[in-house]
Inverse folding.
């Protein structure tokens, strides 16, 4: 991987003599027990109010996670307002219900709706990323997002279509372009973020992940056959499937989590770990083994506790993510200037959440 | 009175200024340590809600803000001014383990009641909004798919088919809902002795079931059960109920990568099996009422169920089997 060193970039962009380099470690100070109490109250109130409170719940959850994320002595702050989130959720839910009813009644109409939705994805994406950025601040300086609709259309329509045309071989480039779009349009105050990684890194990541996936499936089939005495074609036999389903889960779940851990660790390190802002640079050092253990233990504990472990799982993920993230600061962090404030609606983010649009970040 | 330690940010640059913060009795927030002393009216200052031990933010009208780590100190200062507000109620709930455990118990009870009573009742009301003709849209392609994948044409003699169709027509003649009732025969193949109803009103019976019956009354009781599914609009209600259940489960578990699929998926499947048993009981009740009206002994239905059970061994005959989503036969033939 040939990315220039952070020092080289910093000195290229900043002609002044370098002041001291410090590595500021991110820290997450939330605890599972504390978050469990917030989570369960959020859930109860959301259920009692038929989902209305979920907007307030989201704000409390986000404020808890932001407020526990420390960098260089200060915490992040979430500014989303429950009412605007509720409005966004109602719009998203309305769209979902329309889609649900239409798709139950007519296949053709649902395909048409999905097509219309597809062409609006760039717009939702910009709105969602804008809302997320605008509602985040650090040291009372808000993040921002450039209204790059043209870039969004290129990535979310043009490149998405190219994936199909190239039978998937374009996917790593698409992934790169999506991260690049999300990161390079984001600013902290007036200062833009910049992604150093190029498309080659993503081809390298996805080809290794694909090989690992094939190997995992092969190992899984072999282990499953050795244990249960059945070939994988048992999937087509509903009578025997019931009896061997637990074995399938026990064999394949860890293998697939391993592939997922490898892929996510690579993506996180390649994207977040390659972001520069002014002369500073983020460093991400996730490791496959650690992430895999986290995924596996979280999954097992969530299943065994029938979901009660979920808040602990969230906190453990955040702890690990930030424990492996640092800012290599070249000089002072005092020099960022606030950008212009602008309004941002929550509908784009809620629609993207509801329809599972993957925005990359 | 000593000030509360706070970090001041002017909102224009990322410079941090350590300050001491005081709230005096006149409702003025005073910051010292910035060179000159700054004062802001408390009633124009927005103070963020307390969430866990995260820092509080005091946001001033000019866009500057203070972050305070000492939640207790800031709350004590506010309470001294009697500006306590309802916003702490949620934090109070969140700060005690007792409340958390009570909330968990309440949540389990509510979710259980919703699954047992709430969702089925809501689905029945929502289903009533749609005209019965709309039911046909739900399973429009179901018979085609089954014909393609499982069934072959019936080998029953046409006279026998016609005889059973006449009986079926007599059973559905008086139903004034707008379903179009029709009886179809198929050779079941791997589905074996089976009967089921499509939402439109088409009831399909396999040759194997007809051959298994020892009296036409036995077949009629099975048909009555299937008509019960159509009359009570179980397909539409199932669609509504399983959608509501999925939404509930997704809402409860949120998104925790792969684990959420297991956590949300397994209970959803269990709930669907439960709802499907409720529907079977309802269809049984319809069948028993029909038998009573027509002076047919319940024994025919019990005999038929017992024979199916004997042949297919208590619901282990495959995922699509007649018995799998039904209540235990012993339970059904008790009364």
């Amino acid at each position: 991987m040939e990315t220039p060193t952070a020092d080289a970039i910093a000195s290229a962009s900043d002609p002044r003599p370098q002041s001291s380099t410090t590595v500021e470690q991110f820290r997450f100070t939330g605890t599972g027990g504390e978050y469990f109490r917030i989570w369960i109250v959020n859930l109860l109130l959301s259920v009692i109010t038929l989902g209305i409170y979920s907007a307030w719940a989201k704000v409390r959850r986000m404020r808890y996670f932001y407020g526990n994320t420390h960098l260089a002595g200060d915490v992040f702050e979430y500014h989303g307002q429950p009412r605007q989130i509720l409005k966004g959720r109602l719009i998203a839910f309305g769209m979902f219900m329309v889609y649900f009813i239409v798709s139950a009644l007519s296949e053709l109409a649902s395909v048409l709706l999905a097509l219309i939705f597809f062409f609006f994805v760039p717009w939702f994406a910009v709105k969602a990323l804008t809302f997320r950025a605008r509602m985040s601040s650090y040291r009372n300086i808000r993040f921002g997002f450039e209204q790059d609709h043209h870039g969004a259309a290129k990535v979310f329509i043009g490149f998405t279509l190219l994936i199909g045309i190239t039978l998937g071989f374009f996917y790593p480039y698409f992934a790169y372009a999506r991260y690049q779009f999300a990161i390079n349009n984001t600013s902290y105050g007036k200062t833009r973020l910049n992604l150093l990684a190029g498309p080659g890194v993503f081809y390298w990541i996805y080809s290794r992940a694909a090989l690992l996936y094939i190997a995992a499936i092969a190992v899984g089939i072999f282990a499953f056959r050795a244990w249960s005495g059945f070939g994988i074609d048992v999937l087509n036999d509903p009578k025997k499937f019931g009896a061997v389903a637990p074995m399938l889960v026990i064999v394949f779940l860890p293998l697939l989590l391993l592939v997922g851990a490898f892929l996510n660790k690579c993506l996180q390190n390649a994207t977040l770990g390659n972001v520069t802002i002014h002369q500073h640079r983020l460093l991400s050092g996730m490791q496959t083994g650690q992430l895999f253990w986290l995924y596996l233990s979280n999954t097992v504990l969530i299943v065994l506790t029938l979901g009660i472990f979920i808040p602990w799982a969230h906190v453990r993920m955040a702890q690990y993510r930030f424990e492996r993230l640092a800012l290599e600061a070249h000089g002072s962090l005092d020099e960022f200037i606030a950008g212009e404030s602008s309004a941002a609606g929550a509908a784009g983010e809620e629609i993207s959440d509801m329809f599972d649009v993957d925005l990359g970040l | 009175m000593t000030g509360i330690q706070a970090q001041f940010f002017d909102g224009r640059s990322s410079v941090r200024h350590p300050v001491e913060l005081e709230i005096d009795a006149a409702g003025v927030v005073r910051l010292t340590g910035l060179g000159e002393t700054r004062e802001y009216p408390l009633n124009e200052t927005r103070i963020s809600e307390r969430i866990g031990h995260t820092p509080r933010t005091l946001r001033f009208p000019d866009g500057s803000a203070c972050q305070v780590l000492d939640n207790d100190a800031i709350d004590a200062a506010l309470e001294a001014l009697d500006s306590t507000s309802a916003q702490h109620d949620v934090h109070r709930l969140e700060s005690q383990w007792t409340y958390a455990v009570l909330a968990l118990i309440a949540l389990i009870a509510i979710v259980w009641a919703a699954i047992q009573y709430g969702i089925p009742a809501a689905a029945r009301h929502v289903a009533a909004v749609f005209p019965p003709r709309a039911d046909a849209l739900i399973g429009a392609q179901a018979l085609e798919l089954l014909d393609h994948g499982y069934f072959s044409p019936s080998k029953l003699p046409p006279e026998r088919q016609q005889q059973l169709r006449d009986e079926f027509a007599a059973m559905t003649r008086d139903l004034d809902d707008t379903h179009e009732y029709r009886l179809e025969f198929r050779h079941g193949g791997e589905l074996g002795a089976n009967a089921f109803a499509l939402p439109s009103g088409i009831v399909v019976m396999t040759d194997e079931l007809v051959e298994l019956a020892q009296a036409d009354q036995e077949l009629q009781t099975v048909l009555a059960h299937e008509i019960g599914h159509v009359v009570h609009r179980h397909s539409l209600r199932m669609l509504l109920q399983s959608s509501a259940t999925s939404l509930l489960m997704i809402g409860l578990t949120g998104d925790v990568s792969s684990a959420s699929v297991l956590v949300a998926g397994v209970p959803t499947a269990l709930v669907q099996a439960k709802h499907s048993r409720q529907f079977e009981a309802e269809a049984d009740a319809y069948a028993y009422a029909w038998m009573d009206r027509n002076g047919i002994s319940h024994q025919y239905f019990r005999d038929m169920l017992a024979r199916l059970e004997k042949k297919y061994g208590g619901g282990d005959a495959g995922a699509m089997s007649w018995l799998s989503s039904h209540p235990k036969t012993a339970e059904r033939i008790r009364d």
About this structure: The longest strand of chain B covers residues 17-23. Chain B is about 55% helix and 15% strand. The CA atoms of residues 59 and 65 of chain B lie 4 Å apart.
